[in-house]
Design brief:
The chain is an alpha+beta fold. The chain has two domains: 101-189, PDZ domain (Pdz3 Domain, Roll); 193-422, 2-enoyl-CoA Hydratase, Chain A, domain 1. The chain contains twelve helices and 19 strands. The strands form five sheets. It has a six-stranded mixed beta sheet with strand order 10-11-12-15-16-19, sandwiched between helices. Strands 1, 13, 14, 17 and 18 form a five-stranded antiparallel beta sheet that branches. Helix 9 links the parallel strand 15 (290-294) and strand 16 (316-319). The longest helix has 24 residues, at 2-25. 31% of the residues are buried.
């Protein structure tokens, strides 16, 4: 009886072992678990960690968790500038940008003249409701001196559990005095499509800050609003847009293209096609000219939108050559809250060209100096909250025309005039 029981145990072990082997073998990236080279290097890395943990002079830097995190980050960093290992905090911040959601005060901040300053406020945010204004300089958070904090440190203190109260001390340059606000943090869903406007000449404009999970729907709603108000031409501002979720970029491009139109192709390490991203759904009847603004900070998904519309003759691209990020990062999440970005493919536009390291070249170049770019960024962030005199008093220069934007407007006026003569 004991012998039969032992045989059954052996059969079960063989059965489950074979099943485990098959499951692993069916996943090509797992097959190296059965190769001598993989285990030889794992053992070598382990030996080095043992030596460092035992002998390194600063023991707090040599515990196994710290060594593991450092080695993972350095390993990924050595591959290329876009791959990277993200610890729990890094991955949480990455998720905020793509999910367009976090808990905090509902303000955007940037460092100006050595102080972290409110650059913008989201609609219906607790900070806006409490009376905080764009241009306010944050000097204290919950009674702690914040004048020397970095933007990252400030963001960490401003975010927190929804419902938790925060005390914000700000210096308001226009009044020359400090103010204190107390309010509760709340869940914030922030928009990626912003600055939606329609000029008296019928030229509409909007800016996409990044491509998050709601960008496609936000963009469609914005176009619906502008078209209902009589828009005759559109300026799509992608300056400073670092990219984001590719499916949302395809939705944006798809507003101007027929269904099943190829927008971008991804190719893997051996040059074979991994995927072809095509438009879906019902396109709008676009009978107005479109201009797309880009600059040296427009990257990845924003380059795909501008480049595809340029290739397919749906828009004129104006500004400066874009950043040149044509690589695809696959994102992995781990049970401990960490994450991994790994370059796995390259993008190719409809014409077959790649944007990697070259970028999208505009049809019409409008060069902007770094100083002018900084001043324009300040204007876009603060001009709505400050009148021209207060703006000049705060920043030391008078608001100036946005030359790329104005050039786009001129081009669209020319197209509208030509179409009027041709009809």
């Amino acid at each position: 009886m004991f012998r039969h029981k032992r045989q059954w145990i052996m059969y079960l072990l063989v059965f489950f072992g074979t099943g485990l082997f098959v499951l692993v073998w069916l996943q090509p990236h797992q097959r190296d678990l059965f190769t001598p080279g993989f285990w030889r290097n794992i053992i070598h890395v382990g030996r080095v960690m043992l030596l460092v943990n035992h002998d390194y002079v600063e023991s707090d830097k040599a515990d196994y968790d710290a060594l593991s995190e450092t080695s993972l980050k350095q390993m990924l960093h050595g591959l290329d500038e876009y791959s990277g290992y993200m610890d729990r905090d890094d991955y949480a911040e990455f998720s905020v940008q793509t999910d367009q959601h976090y808990a905090g005060i509902g303000a955007e901040v940037e460092r100006i003249d050595g102080r972290v300053t409110i650059a913008g406020l989201f609609d219906h945010s607790p900070a806006l409701a409490a009376g905080v204004r764009a241009g306010d300089e944050i000097v204290r958070v919950d009674g702690d001196d914040a004048t020397g904090w970095t933007v990252t440190e400030m963001v960490e203190h401003l975010r927190g559990p929804a419902g938790e109260r925060v005390e914000l001390g700000v210096y308001r340059p226009s009044e020359g005095q400090e103010r204190v606000f107390t309010f509760a943090r709340q869940a914030i869903d922030f928009p990626s499509v912003r600055d939606i406007q329609l000029g008296p000449d019928g030229v509409g404009s909007l800016r996409i800050a990044s491509f998050g999970r709601n960008t496609g729907a936000e963009f469609r709603a914005a176009l619906d609003t502008l078209e209902a108000a009589g828009m005759r031409a559109l300026i799509l501002d992608l300056r400073g847009n670092p990219g984001g979720l590719l499916p949302e970029a395809i939705k944006v491009a798809g507003e101007f293209l027929p269904p099943h139109t190829l927008v971008v192709t991804t190719r893997g390490r051996d040059g074979t096609v991994i995927n072809e991203e095509r438009t879906a759904g019902t396109p709008r009847r676009v009978d107005y000219p479109v201009a797309v603004l880009i600059d040296g900070s427009s990257a990845s998904a924003s380059e795909i939108v501008s480049g595809a519309l340029q290739d397919l003759g749906k828009a004129v691209v104006i500004g400066e050559t874009s950043y040149g990020k044509g690589s695809v990062q696959r994102v992995y999440a781990f049970a401990n809250g960490d994450g991994l970005r790994l370059t796995s493919a390259m993008y190719y536009l409809p014409s077959g060209r790649t944007i990697h390291k070259t970028g999208v070249e505009p049809d019409i170049t409008v060069a902007v100096s770094s100083q002018e770019a900084l001043e324009l960024r300040l204007q876009h962030s603060h001009q709505r909250a400050l009148d021209p005199a207060a703006f000049e008093a705060r920043f030391g220069f008078a608001p100036a025309p946005d030359r790329p934007f104005e050039r786009a407007r001129e081009v669209l006026h020319g197209v509208l005039a030509w179409e009027g003569e041709s009809s």
